[in-house]
Amino acid sequence: MSASRTERLLNLLIALLNTTYGLRRSELREKVYHDTTSNDVAFGRMFERDKGELRRFGFDVETVMDKGWGSDDPATTRYRIGKESNRLPDVSLTPAECTVLILAAQLWEHAALGSAALNAVRKLQASGGLVDAELPAGVQPRIRPAGQAFEDLVAAMHAQHPVSFRYLAGSTGKEEERLVEPWGLGSRFGQWYLVAHDRARGDKRFFRLSRLTSAVTVLDKESFIAPADFNVRAELAGLAELPVRTAAVDVQAGRLRGLRKRALPGPAAETGAGLPSTVRDRLNVPFRDVETLAEELASYGPRAVAVSPPELVSSVRRRLSAAADFAAAPVPPVAFPAGSSLPGGKSRHGRKRTSEDQLSRMLQLVPFLVHNQGLHISEVAAKFGITRKELEADLRILICSGLPEGYPDDLLDIQWDDDHVTISQDLDLNRPVRFTVEEACALLTGLETLNGLPELAEGGALESVTLKLMAAAGEEGLKAAALSGPGVGPENSAALETAREAIRSGAQLRLRYFSPLRDAVSERNIDPLRLYSLDNTWYLEAYCHSVQGLRNFRLDRIEALKTTGVPVSATAAPGTSFPVKLFTPNDDDTVVVVELTRRGIGLADEYYAERTAELPDGGLLAEIRFGSTDWLPMFVAQHGGTARILHPDELADASREWLAAALAQYED
């Protein structure tokens, strides 16, 4: 849609909302469309498209007929939209309910569902349903989606379009092309699964997202209907966990302490096959899933070589080969366009914004301004994740929109001359539209996920806010059963409780911590500040006295944690971001340009890219800050051909050398 069509649709919506009797097509053509050039047939097609667009936004365009006239006579047919059409019902929340709701919305930080969750929260703010709530310092869980495939599958699932992709079959170890109808997505045993109807096999199948070997292609010209009573959590509950198996892995002597801790007792040190001069230790490593262990072993590069079983060796080699091939491919021109980042360093990428997005945003903007009078224009722009220039473009369209006659009292009245935005005429757009299916799924799935945290499940607020949102979401809320999040309960619950109590009491902690990058254990005094998680992996943000700065520590790598009897220092202060960022930027960070394939573009969000640029093949250039560049070769190897380093040149060379050395171990 063009910007002019956005304005026309907005005026059409206002006109149909503000008529009781209804408006004839001829009246709309003259007063809203101002159309004097097209013939009746061309105008009729345009009008039908616009009605369809409003219906896609959820507004029910009613057709009113005069008695005694033919029902198919467009000259006598009138149109209107009921005042309550697609309006979000009133939702009143207590402070405790607001707390769990905001935590549920913030679960989806990086996914497309993150934007949907923020939109849903913004609608509740616009309706006055949210009140001020204090978020707990020790509980900030988040969900790590399974890359771009997750984004594409969620979109196809909600739009009911079939998809195709290449899949590494677990039974045969071969890649196969699959054409499926996506019914649901859920997490089980720490892995994301797609439950779908496989058209070629004529039956329901389960697909591990980590086994997809290509990007997802959405067949948007086709559609399907999922079973009415489908519940992905119930479907996944019947999956049996994979049995524990043992892999033989040769590891450089004295290296990879973390892998050694998991290994079973085995033979003594021996000479590694293929590299006689290198002393290696044969480890017997228990595992359940080949692909998960292969991803880890690939990241270790020349420090480890898989020996058995054969499918593990093949998977590691495949990942390393794909990474090496991508690293050796021709380099595209590196250029970042203006507007590729937002204020505050937040990157902008993904699907291009359309006029549909703009109209949807403006339908949120008007009620938001009604309930938040006088906010600074920069604050409003930040709330909607757009630039000030984009917001002013929205406002200029809004103040030119109104009832058909267009008199001053018939227009939306918004002022921002002093940089503080106020609205005095809303033309019945003062209530937000209902939740979309994406918004309902984001909030309700998030609330369901929080049930895994006893401190939130107790007290009744989680259950009561879920019931209120289900009622407000209506039919769209029922579709949330097609999505199920992972468990967020911590594995190291003792360390979590020690850290949480230290945060509450302001006590300093003594930490013994294993760093996989340095492959060493260190001890340090820390001032604990915040706890947060990605799925069930929990992190402790703390001020580290050894490095005199903020650091994030994984709880499952903490070997000992106890209080020192000393209060935290006055210099300790948490980072300004909320939710907490996994990576804390510093002035001495190295700026790295990374190329990501279409499968890997989600990494730009995961690593907080500061600038991005789309590539013709659907990939992405991303400019990312890294505090330590030593692990970048591991990063490239781990992601098996979906990411490579372009600049600085020395880091790109180092990653290629790392991959070459790793692959040399698998040569016959």
Low-confidence stretches: 268-277, 347-351
Estimate percent helicity. 25-40%
Estimated structural class: alpha+beta
Count of alpha/pi helices = 21
- Radius of gyration (CA) equals 28 Å
Give the overall shape. Answer: globular
For the largest beta-sheet, the strand count, sense and barrel status come to: 6 strands, mixed
Quaternary status of these chains?
single chain
Taken as a percent bin, the fraction of beta residues is 15-25%
Mean pLDDT: 84
Beta-strand segment tally: 25
N→C terminal distance:
58 Å
Which features would summarize this protein structure in a list?
668 residues; alpha+beta; six-stranded mixed beta sheet; five-stranded antiparallel beta sheet; 25 strands; globular
Structure description:
- The structure is a single chain.
- This protein is α+β, with helices and mostly antiparallel strands.
- The strands form six sheets. Strands 4, 5, 6, 7, 8 and 16 form a six-stranded mixed sheet that branches. Strands 20-19-18-17-21 form a five-stranded antiparallel sheet. A four-stranded antiparallel sheet has the order 10-11-9-12.
- A hairpin with a 4-residue loop joins β14 (413-415) and β15 (420-425).
- α20 packs across α21 (649-664).
- The radius of gyration is 28 Å and the shape is globular.
- The N and C termini lie far apart (58 Å).
- Mean pLDDT is 84; it is low at 268-277 and 347-351.
